[in-house]
Each structure stands twice: as C-alpha cells, then as structure tokens.
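User: I'll paste a sequence; please echo it back and then give the predicted structure.

Assistant: Echoing your sequence first, then the prediction.
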Amino acid sequence: MTVVIALTVLLPNISICKEKNTLITETFRECVQKATHLFISGYYLRAFEQFEFLNQNFSNEAEYNNPKFQNKLLPVMGYTYQISGHPYRAIEYYKKFLTTYKEPDSKRAFVMFNLARIYRKTDDLEKAVDQFIIFEKVFAHLPEAALAVIERAEILYQQKKFVQSVNLLNSLYESNTEFSLPMQARLKALQYSISGNQQEAALNILLNTKWDVNKMPDIAALSFSALKLGNILLKDNDNLNAIRCYRLTTPLKLLITAQRQRIQKIKNYIDQSQSGNQFSNSFRVDYYKRVYQRLNTELENLKSSEDYTPLLQMRLGQAMLMVNRLEEAWLIFENLTLTESNNIDLQNEAHYRWIVTARTMKSWDDAITLAKNFNKKNPDSAFRPLVLQIMAEIFQEQKKYREAVEILSGLIALYPDNIHKSRWIFNKGFNLMLAEKYEPSRLEFEYYQENFPKGNLYHNAQLWHALSSFFEKNYQQCLDELNEMIKTTKGHHLYPEILYRKAALFYTMRDYNLALKNIKSYQQKYSDHHRYIESQILLGDILMGKGQLHEAIKIFTKVNPEVVRFYTYASFQIGKCYQSLEKYNLLIDHFKNYIAENNSNNVPRIAEALYWLGWSYEKLDMIDSAFPLYIKILNEHGNNLETDHIEFTLSTLEKYHKKFLFDNSNSLKKISNPFGNFKYFNEWLEFQSQKALQSKNLIYYSRLQLYLSKRYQKSDQVDLAESIILKISNTVPLASLDAQCLGEIGLLKVNLNLNSAKEYFTLSLEAFPNSRYRNLAYIGLSKLHLYNENHTEALIWLRQSYDQFSHLNNNIDAILMYATTLLKLKRNEDSIHIFEDLLKRKKIKSRYRAEALGGIAKAYQNSDEPKKAIAYYQRVYNLYRAHQDIQSNAYLESALLLEKLGESKKAYETLVEMLKQEQLKKYESYTIAQNEFNRLSEVLQLNAEIK
C-alpha cells in the first residue's frame, strides 16, 4: 500500500479505540498522530524516529500490543523502516506480521510483496525470488501478481540469466493480465534481449509485437531500443531488418510531445487512484509513481539532448542503399544534404552517400555533377578523397579512361599519405592499360610492386603488367612473366587465374597443343574456380582450332544452360562445328532445340538461330522450310533492338525476290509470294518501311530504310543513299536505333562535319557493347579525333577496331587508317607490322596494297633506312600504275632518297621516267618533280663541266 493510504486507515481505528474507552493515554495518541503526520508529509527519517520513540515507550502497553492495532501498525512501521533506509528492521516487522496474521487480504499481499523487494535490495536474491513466487501463487488472482513476475525477471537479468529472464517476461506478455504490465514486460524482454546480445530474439520481439502506446508509458524506451537494435543490425549487415527497426524509432520532436502526453496520463491515474483508502490499488500507485519520476527525468534529458533524428535518417538511408532501395536512399540523403540546420559534418557525409547512391543507380551524370559540387563546396572534407575515387571509378565504367587517370593522378598528388594511395596507383595503371597506353601502365604497375611489396594488389599488378604485353601482342613477353608468376604465387588466390591465362595465351598464339595441355591441367586442379565454366568454352575452342570438331561439340554440350552467356556462346559454337562438318540435319535439330527452349527460358539470339536454321534448310534444298523462317525473323524480331541478323535476312530475301521473278522451279511453287506485284526489291522495301512507320515499329522501319540506303550506295546513287540515312536520323529517336543504324548515321554526320555525330557512337557502345556493328563506332570516334589532329586518342579506337575486327575483309579501311596513324605518331615498327598484315591478305583491292607498300616505305624513310624505303617505293610505281596518285608520290620520294644517298644520277633517271608519264601531271608531286628535275639537271651539268 502507499504510505498515505496505510496511515489514513490506521488513524480512524485509534479514534475508534478511544470511543470504546480503550486505555490509550493522550501521549500515546499524540505520538501515533505525530508519526503519522510526519510520514504523510514525506519526512521519513523523522517519522522513523517517532515510530522508534513509540516502540521504546509503549511496546509493553496493552494498547500497543493489541492484535488489531498491531495488524494496522506492523505493515506501516515496516514500510516506514524500509523507506527510511533500515531494511533489516523492516524485514523484522514484515516477518512478524506474516507470522501473526494469516488472512490473505490486501495487507498481507502488500507485506509479502515489499518483503520480497527488501530481500532484493539487500542482495538476498534467492529469498527474494522465493518470496515473489509465493506471492504469485497466493495472489495469482490479483493484477499485481504481474508486478512480481516483472521483479523476478529483473532479478534473473541481474544474475545474467538472460534467456530465463526474457522467457519469463514473454510468458507474462502472453497472459491475460489486465492493465499495461504485459506491454511493459514485453518492452523489458526487448531491452534484455538487446543487452544480452540476443539479436534474433530481440528482433522477433520488436517486429512481432503490436505495440499499443496507450497501454505502455515507456514509449521513449521502445524508441531507443528500436534505434539501438537497428544500429546493431546495420553493423552486422542485416540491413533489411535494420530498416524495420529504424521505422519503429520515433523522431525526437514527436517523441517529446508523446512523452509529455504519457506523463500527463500517468499523473491523472495516480491522482485518481490516491482518492481511495484501500490496499488493493497501492501496488500500482507505487509502481506508477516510480514510472512517473523516471519519465520526467527522461523528458528533461530528451529536451536537453542533441537531436538524434538526422543521424537516424542517415543510418536508415545507408540501410536503404545496402538493400538496393535506391530511390528511397536518394531522397533521404538529398534531404539531409540540403537541410541547412543539420550539422555540417553530417551534411557532408549525407552528400557523399548521395553520390554513392547515384553511382549505384548508374546515374553517371548525376553522380559526377554531385561529386563536382561536393568538391567545390567542401575542398577540405575528409570525404573528398572518397568522392574523387568514386569519380575515377565512374569514368572507368563509362570507358572515359583518360578522365579517370587525371582524377587518380590528382588524388595521388593531393593525398600522398592516404591509406588508399596504393589502390589509386594500381587503378591508375589499370586505366592507362584500358586506354591502351601500355608502357605508362606498366610503369605504374612496376611502381606499385616496388613501393608496396606487401600490398593486397601486388600480384594483381604483376598479372596486369603481363597482360598489358598480351594486349600489345607481345606474346612471348607475356608468357615469360606468367611463367615467373607461376613460380612465386602458389597458394595465392590468383594462381588458378594465372594458369587459365597461360592456357588462353597459348590458344591466342595458335599453339593448340600447349593450350590443350595447360587448360586440362587447370581443370583437373581447379574445378571449383570461377573461371571453370569459361575454361570449358576455351577447351571447346581449342579443340575446334585443332580440327577436333566432334570432341569440341561434346565439350560445348556440357556447358550449363543456367549460365546463359556461356551457354549461348557454346550453342552457336556447336552450330559452327556442324556447319564445318556439313552436318545440316544435325544443325537443324540443334537449333530447333535451342529455339524450343525459348518457351521456358529467355534464350537470347533467337533470330540468329532462326537464320541459321533457314540457312541449313537451304543447304538441303528445303526452300519451302527455309523461306518462312526468314519471314518469321522480320515479322517477330525486326522491331527488337537485340536482334542483329536483320541485314542478313533482308539480303537473303533479296535473293528470293529475284527467284520469284525469274525462277519457276517446283520448290518455289510451294511458297506463297510475299513480294506481291513489286517488280523491284527497292519498291518492296519502301512499302514495308511505310507499313512499319504507320505501325510505329520504328526500329524495323530504320533497318529497312538503312538496307535500302545500302542498295543505293552499291548502285553509286550516293546522294540518295545519304538522304535516306538523314531521313532515319530525323524520323527515328535515338532510343529506337540499333547499333548499325547509330553507327551509319554517326559516320555520315562525321563526313558532313556535323557536331552531333559523337552522341551516336557513344550511345552505340553503351547500349550495344557486344554488337558486331560496334566497329562503326570505333571508326567514327577515331575519325573525329583525326579531324582534330588528335592522333593519340584516335589510336585508342583504331586499336580496338583492329584487335576485334581485323579478320573482316570489310574492315580494311580501318586497318589502313590504324597503320597510317601509327606512322604519323612515328611508331614506325608498329606501322610496318600492320601494313605487312594487310599485304598478307589475298582478297583485297590493289589500291590497298599500293597504300600499304607506300606506308612501309614511309616508315623506313622515317626510321632513316633509305635503301629499304626506296625498294618499297619502286615496288609501288612499278606494280601499281593504275593508282596514279600513289605512284606519283612514290616516284618523287624515291628520287629524293636516291639523291640523299649520293646517287644523283639514279635520282635524275627516276625523275625522267616519272615526267614522261603525262597522266601524272594533275598531281602536286609532278610539279615538285619538275622543279627537282631542273635543279638536278643543273647540278649534274655543272659536275660534268668540272670533270
């Protein structure tokens, strides 16, 4: 019971005693009244002294020892001693009461409960637990039994018996106990689970409880528990559950308002409860008085504390970022950054994380803009190195390697002592390599190895140093370095990668036997390596290179369909094998099965498979089976950007158009003519184009128009061809153009010197990085750089064109451009290598051969090897007279070199031979040759006269 209620109950009984003429003196009554008044007024120590006086002076009196008086007095005196700091005396009175009075009424409940609490306070925990258990059994019908459960759970927690404590509290929560105690028990269970590092249990409690704030005063405790658990889970990378916790954390301003409301409700309850005079509600009043005091203290702390809400939002945003809820993370970080009232350090961190979010969303331009703004606003921020690092990484992903190198160079210079310096140096070398600046990249990798011999990327630097030689086609150097690494990296995680690269190197060198030996050795040892599936592909390719096509098919067949990229590649390699073996029936079955898989899986390159299926039917003269497949490709895949076999299909249909006009064979009679009455294929193309345009199938429309343009080009109607391409550009948005259309439009705009050309090439490479037509973008970008005399940048794109497409006969112009650019950069030996590569090709035009010979001559001339240069110039003007501009220049250069060697007479004779050919008069070199002839004539005549 509360003190006020207990003593209010006692005093009327004293008066009753007086009315019954009980022998109570005025002094005794005054003493009791004084003790009561002091206690009611809160003067506990003085009340204790008064009760002590009462005990010393009246303990032998009959009135004092009257059982009815003792029944009232003992609980009050026990509580007085308890509250005034004399627990053992209180125990004495409580035990005396319990021994004397057995009636299970509210006073006994009060005494039993407080006795247990004193045992707990005096650290006699076992007795406390026993007393609480007895209380729970005897007074199980009272709501206050729940308080005993909570106290007992607190003791278990105090004894570090976390699991037992939480289980006890949870059992109370699941009971039918009235009032708010079950909710309080659940909250304590949450707090104890967190403190006991039982995160899973805490999370289960937090998320699977219907928290009724109207039935629980400690909303701040709930909020901070959710925040604390969220922080723990965020640190443990359990980000999804961290988000759930943060969502249950109340922002500070709202929490202060809610806390005030809860305090007022508790005060109202206490005031209403104290109006009674019974023990029955004393437990709860006492309990909620303590809660009232605690919540007031918490409120004052909340009002004076720094607002935790921005930091809460920061962590929520971070968790959102980690679970890929990027739009939500973006909004949170943006708001934190732009809220000027936030702490500047928090704003900077939010800005940094905003940049990270934009980068994760692949919003490259936004990320770069945000990063530039950050660097401008916060040049001294601790986050600036990280922001610059992100910028470099974005530029790398955008294939803007030069910009990445510039950022990394600046980072290294600005922050020479930063812990990330070694990574920046490595990344700089890596980007230089990607930019095809192989020698500078090797210098960076070497610097890393020299200065960070224990760095995490030491062996990575070694590997890429070796592979940079591979990319330069210096295969022997690459092999030597890989062999050296094999000796020193056993046990390192890169060791299997090095073995794989070595096998791939032998394959590139066309040493199929060594490639086969090395790849099998790798597979036997590292079947769980991430390159293993790729090694199966390599093994199949090696077997194809050796001509073991049946064995290659068996290997490709084993590739797991779930790895779509490799499975698709393997499927089409199997198709190539069947083509080479001329096993057309097997090829048909193979691609039929491949296409059938599209019913259950998103199988790529379906149109290509249909094309080769049709091609195979044609080989077996099954025209009626082949032809519908080509129509199917156009109808079902013509408007799909991922399809890149439309040009080949149209070329095949063009052949069929002629057959329908002139071939009356039985094979065509089985096929309905799709060309109608169009006599010319161009007319059919234009008709189909208009249908596609009306249906808004703009992708298909652009492809039909482009094919029509190419037909006009072949018939030397260049102006008409170019006008069609410009019409595509003006009609079809960029997003509906495939790689071929983007490339062709871009190339035309380059030739017309239009500024918008670059965006076509950039989009082509970004949207279609694996397309067969990306070479158009390589060529276009190189031309843009060449027009600006930027030969170094042009070389980057020309090198990619050469490395990836040099095997194609339609890429000769690009190869020649590549060699010529090397020549202009004085890389004479490299240019000779490319020119000689051209000369080895059998089916190229004679003009290309003439230009290649002239290029080799010029390279030797630049290298100060005039005799070799003269020999190549002589081959040009003797063998390729049809190409007069090249021939004319070769004559002149040869004559000048001969004179330089002191062979003026041979030079003179060469000029005479040249000037006899009047068809060369239209070239500038002819005019120069005449002047040189006149000069030499005078020199030779003068020399003759001297002799």
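The chain has 50 helices and no strands. Residues 181 and 941 are 125 Å apart (CA to CA).
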